[in-house]
UniProtKB/TrEMBL annotation:
SUPFAM superfamilies: HAD-like. It is a single-pass membrane protein. The keyword Chloroplast does not apply. It comes from Paramuricea clavata. PANTHER family: DULLARD PROTEIN PHOSPHATASE. Residues 66-233 form the FCP1 homology domain. This is protein-serine/threonine phosphatase. GO terms for cellular component: membrane. Pfam families: NIF. It catalyses: O-phospho-L-seryl-[protein] + H2O = L-seryl-[protein] + phosphate; O-phospho-L-threonyl-[protein] + H2O = L-threonyl-[protein] + phosphate.
Length: 253
């Protein structure tokens, strides 16, 4: 209210053209300030959130790991690790003023298309930790050009992912792209998938961790929430002995 009164008083003192010029500059500065604050909001939130603490394994735990196979952790992309929106097209974001983490330009049907991509909160921390526990594989129902570009960005030359699979590796069944984990590894006791779409793993339900779809909510902590289970899962001989209970008895994370 005081600011409005001050602006009204300013109009009475300063000639109208100059007053409009000053107000235009003020609005631009305010817009810039809001953009910077929103751009850094996620960083502030992530620093306020408790991270997952890791400790050196005991000799007994180290011995247990040597007795079981190293697992393969398959990761979906869209609405699981990231949310991507084609510029000017698609679902309206619940947080329209949140700037994207990066922008991709991908050639689709001989046209260059811009994608605004948001990374799920804590993604970098999550990948940096779980790549020490498992062999990470990307499996997305997206086209290879798009999926490869997104994966390159979130990997950022850190070597998180050992392999990548795309839409042409899926099986189309009544409009649903099914991801068959056996094409990655025939031994289903040592492979599992994190995916927001139940249809994607309908043939491997006992090898799946459901996760809620994510659409750019900066306060989301789903990736942190599943870390304790993942930490324990690497010690089991057969992931299905644990995940079969998870799918049938528990909701998505």
């Amino acid at each position: 209210m005081e600011l409005i009164m001050a602006l009204k008083s300013l109009k009475e003192i300063i000639p109208l053209p100059n007053c409009r010029r000053i107000m235009t500059i003020f609005v631009k500065l305010w817009t810039l300030l809001m953009y910077v604050l929103k751009r850094n909001m996620r960083t502030v939130i992530e620093h306020q959130t408790i991270r997952y603490s890791t400790f050196e394994l005991s000799p007994l735990s180290q011995q247990r790991l040597r007795l079981v196979r190293r697992k393969i952790f398959v990761l979906d992309l869209d609405e699981t690790l990231i949310h991507s929106q084609r510029d000017g097209v698609g679902r309206k974001s619940l947080y329209p003023n949140m700037p994207p983490d990066f922008v991709l330009r991908v050639t689709v049907e001989h046209q260059t298309v811009r994608f605004l991509v948001h990374k799920r909160p804590h993604l970098d921390f999550f990948l940096g930790l779980v790549c020490q526990w498992f062999d990470l594989v990307v499996f997305t129902a997206s086209l290879e050009r798009y999926g490869m570009a997104v994966t390159d960005k979130i990997d950022n030359n850190k070597g998180f992912f050992t392999r990548r699979y795309f839409r042409h590796h899926c099986t189309l069944h009544f409009g649903t792209y099914i991801k068959d984990l056996s094409i990655i590894n025939e031994d289903l006791s040592s492979i599992f998938i994190l995916d927001n779409s139940p249809g994607a793993y309908m043939n491997n339900k006992d090898n799946a961790i459901p996760i809620k779809s994510w659409f750019a909510d900066p306060s989301d902590t789903a990736l942190l929430n599943i870390l304790p289970m993942l930490d324990a899962l690497r010690f089991t001989a057969d992931v299905r002995s644990i995940l079969s209970r998870n799918v049938h008895n528990y909701p998505a994370w």
